[in-house]
Each structure stands twice: as structure tokens, then as C-alpha cells.
Amino acid sequence: MQEDGYSSGKLSTKYVWQLSPDGKTLTVTSQLVSPPESKKIASVYERSGGDVSNNDPFIGFWKRNWNKSDVRIATFSSKGGVLTPNGL
Predict the structure, then answer these.
(1) What DSSP string describes the chain?
(2) In the prediction, which pLDDT does 69 show?
(3) What is the Cα–Cα distance from 1 to 17, expressed in whole angstroms?
(4) How many domains are there within the chain?
(5) What range does the domain containing 6 cover?
(6) pLDDT at site 33
(7) pLDDT (mean) for 9-16
(8) Could you check whether the bond before residue 36 is cis, i.e. omega within 30 degrees of 0?
(9) Are 33 and 12 in contact, with CB atoms under 8 Å apart?
């Protein structure tokens, strides 16, 4: 499944949701579409109990697996008392 986000009529974000064949692992790849850099970051989730829907395999309880997910590091700059994110 793919979700595209738009800002001012322009593509700004992409999310791709991919379920493993056994239905136990969900990988969400997010991409901020902003020049000059367009970095993809994967977040991995594992099914965590609860009933599994027969109608929609994405429905259920999911727990993030931090060891399999990409690291997200945000840095900020201070200018005139305002914090501004770098590289976002």
C-alpha cells in the first residue's frame, strides 16, 4: 500500500506499507520528498497479540522493532532564539 502526501499541490511525502508474506512483520518506509535530499527511512513493526482481521491484514496490534528500524536523528540550529531542523 502506498500513501502520498501533498503540500501546496506538490508531492511532499511518500509512505509505503509492506506486509510480510506470513503477515507477522510490517515495514513502513517513509520518504520526505524535498530537494536536495530525499532520504528513505524504514520502520519495522511486529504483530503483537490480538485478533488478526480476515478482511484487512493490516488491522491488528503492532509493536515497533527498534533493532530492525532505521535510526532517526534530528539536529537543530538556533538562530535568533528560534530552533530550525536541519536536513528535514
Answers:
(1) -EEEEEETTEEEEEEEEEE-TTSSEEEEEEEE-BTTB--EEEEEEEE-SSPPPSS-TT-S-EEE-TTTSPP---EEEEETTEEEEE--
(2) 93
(3) 5
(4) 1
(5) 2-86
(6) 80
(7) 90
(8) yes
(9) yes
Instruction: Tell me how far the alpha carbon of residue 2 is from its chain's centroid.
Output: 11
Reading the block at residue 63, the C-alpha cell is: 509493536
Query: Which tens digit of pLDDT belongs to each residue from 25-67?
Result: 999 999 888 665 677 889 999 999 877 788 888 888 999 999 9
Work out whether the CA dihedral 39, 44, 59, 20 comes out positive or negative. Answer: positive
Exposed, middle or buried, 43 (CB in 10 Å: 0-12/13-18/19+)?
middle
Which grid coordinates belong to 1? Answer: 500500500
Look at residues 7, 53, 62, 64 and name the one whose alpha carbon lies nearest to residue 32.
7
